[in-house]
Amino acid sequence: MGGKGIRITRKRQAILDVLKNTDEHLTAENIYFILKRKNVKVGLATIYRTLDLFYQNGIVNKINIGDGTIRYEYVDKKSVHHHHLVCIKCGKVMEYTDEKEPAFLEELAARIKKNYGFSVLSHEIYLYGICKECNEGE
Ligand SMILES: [Zn+2]
Ligand SMILES: [Zn+2]
Ligand SMILES: [Zn+2]
User: Fold this and answer.
1) In this predicted model, what pLDDT tens digit does every residue of 43-99 receive, in sequence order?
2) What is the whole-number distance in angstroms between the Cα of residue 38 and the centre of ligand 3?
3) 50, 74, 98 — which closes off a domain?
4) Of 37, 42, 57, 103, which has the highest C-beta tally within 10 A?
């Protein structure tokens, strides 16, 4: 998986570098403005197409928090399994890991299999709330 048969052009590399060098979850527009500030000329349509290509090749993840905008993150093979916390006040998307999650989800999957005959293969979790900074600002 990852990058098989996809040609990494200079523009594609520039887009990939933006995602590799951040902990944030960026939209296509975010990437467009970051590249623009670095004087790298890549059109928004190219960025959309490239991100889609990256996604299909397992190079990036799509983060969909339901606000109508897709955010992207680089798939780091070394990074730990994580999910996302979404602040409904400032729109920040943070990552979290929880050591008890695997056991919890195994139990949940077993119950779902039993009650619905459905085999869970993967999952995505988004928790919505108020971040620390926004909480402190009150
Ligand atoms: Zn998980
Ligand atoms: Zn916040
Ligand atoms: Zn993430």
Assistant:
1) 999 999 999 999 999 899 999 988 889 999 998 877 778 899 999 999 889 999 999
2) 24
3) 74
4) 42
